């Protein structure tokens, strides 16, 4: 089942293929099966305390250990060097220090839509680490579950390590490093924004801000495993969630239902739902495509340049507010 991600882009086809990888270790298998059961997750049993729906630190650390750490790029390049989507460290001209973004892709991997966000960011005088969590690990998609140890928790560790990597660069302002995640990357962002996971990995202070584009805010229910929430009350830094009102793949309502009480309790969360907007509104390569998902839902992709422009405006205004908050 594809949950929280589009089909493959022009770099390859993953349209409806790929069962879960047969893992030798039980933990990554359960975390993988969780992807399949996300959309079928039942409401919490009465009396379950949402604060307990987190993975203990030892499980977090083990879940992230089945894939080796990424080798992150050290040499900064100009944006003109980015002729195709790939892992890259990009910067504007000049010495900085610049605010910096980690950009994390959808479940089908790095694509032209995410690379376009790198270009927008550099044009606004941001440094960018365009993160590819898959290619070096031999993975093309995790839309049907983790592959080669790449799961949501591993993604959160990747993102937090990328933040630490950027903070060590002389052209980066270490107090202005943010994560922008898309779909699967947005779900990773929900974890990376939480103090529990920042503390579990010990990779520094985390991000100054996190923005999640069209994530799923699902409760993960691994068969035989421990339920845990992607959204939690321990949000450490400002979080912006942007969603489509016509998104049948990662419905906005579930995010709104979970974010609303957190905001009322004082958590630094904000969100916006674009009426009539589908999943992956910035993915021009998917415009007009559709499918029926495992639940029988019709899922359509429609590129909406007006929403792209507005989400860009909202994103960078949110970042500026977050820097001022610091």
Q: Any overview of this molecule?
A:
With about 325 residues, this protein is an alpha/beta fold. It has eight helices and twelve strands. The protein has helices spanning about 25-35, 55-65, 110-125, 150-165, 185-190, 195-200, 250-265, 305-325; strands at about 75, 90, 100-105, 125-130, 170-180, 210-215, 220, 230, 240-245, 270-275, 290, 300. The strands form three sheets. It has an eight-stranded mixed β-sheet with strand order 1-2-4-3-5-6-9-10, sandwiched between helices. Strands 7-8 form a two-stranded antiparallel ribbon. Strand 7 (about 220) and strand 8 form a beta hairpin. Helix 4 (about 150-165) packs across helix 5. It is globular, with a radius of gyration of 18 Å.
Topology:
Elements: H1 26-37, H2 57-63, E1 76-77, E2 88-90, E3 98-104, H3 112-123, E4 127-131, H4 152-167, E5 172-182, H5 184-192, H6 195-201, E6 209-213, E7 219-220, E8 228-229, E9 239-244, H7 252-264, E10 269-274, E11 290-292, E12 298-300, H8 305-325
Parallel strand pairs: 1-2, 3-4, 3-5, 5-6, 6-9, 9-10
Antiparallel strand pairs: 2-4, 7-8, 11-12
Helix pairs in contact: 2-6, 4-5
What is the makeup of the main sheet? 8 strands, mixed
Radius of gyration: 18 Å
Please give the order of strands in the largest beta sheet.
Answer: 1-2-4-3-5-6-9-10
Q: Uncertain segments of ≥5 residues (pLDDT<50)?
A: 1-50
Query: What is the average per-residue confidence, as pLDDT, rounded to a whole number?
Result: 85
Shape: globular
What's the β-strand tally?
12
Task: Give the SSE order as H and E letters.
Answer: HHEEEHEHEHHEEEEHEEEH
Which structural class matches the secondary elements? Answer: alpha/beta
Termini separation comes to 40 Å
Helix share bin: 25-40%
